[in-house]
What does this fold into?
Amino acid sequence: MAAYLDHMALRVKDLDWHIRFFEEVFGMQTRMEMGEAPNRKIWLDGGLQFNESEDFDGPEGQADHLGIMTEDMEEVLKKAYERGAEEMPQGHNWIRLPEGMCIEVIEKEEK
It folds into this structure.
């Protein structure tokens, strides 16, 4: 039996901002929603789940980083930086979102 990651759940304070960011930058659409504000849970295509938490103010509880593969890394990075992402010391393809989430953007290699 093969194992695989079904989804990764992350706590965020501003759920709506994160949903817009991942839809507009990576094209990930909402696949399921549960609950009412301020305790909503949203699942996106691509295996991400965001749990709304108004009292969340730091990186505790978040993963180290997300690795997201894309077919157009430069376009994704352009959109990310336009929306407030900051470059990390690891390189231009490593971004930090305003609430602290770290993402490694990976260019899909053609076979």
